[in-house]
Each structure stands twice: as C-alpha cells, then as structure tokens.
Design goal:
alpha+beta; three-stranded antiparallel beta sheet
Length: 71
Amino acid sequence: WIDCTNKIDKKSFKISKKDSKGILIQSKTWNTIKPLTKSCQILCLCSMKYLKNDYIHDYSIFKQNYLKWIY
C-alpha cells in the first residue's frame, strides 16, 4: 500500500505485481509505503539526484507547513 496526502486529497493505492502499474507522486505530497510482503520491492524514479536535506522526514512538520489549510 502507498498512502499519499497533500493539500487537496488523501488517497491510498494498492499496487501488486499483476497490476504492473505505478503512480506519480507530485511534490509537496507526504507518502507512506507499506509493503504487502516481506519480499516486496519498490523502485523510485526521480528527475533529480536525491538530497536528504531537500525532504521533510517528520509528518508533524509536513502537516504544519503544507496541510495547515485543510486541517
């Protein structure tokens, strides 16, 4: 499962091997990945090099900065 939350919406996606699909997660979206099995593999594709400091790692900070209008 992948749970995504942004200013507009909150959605959950179940992606399985037989679906052969992916999802596009827009910027300023909090996502939580819950593997369906212990052998689950996840591939993330990005347009830029990952820099840890570019991301918020604490949901309470994300909520305070980006969700203040809907909560």
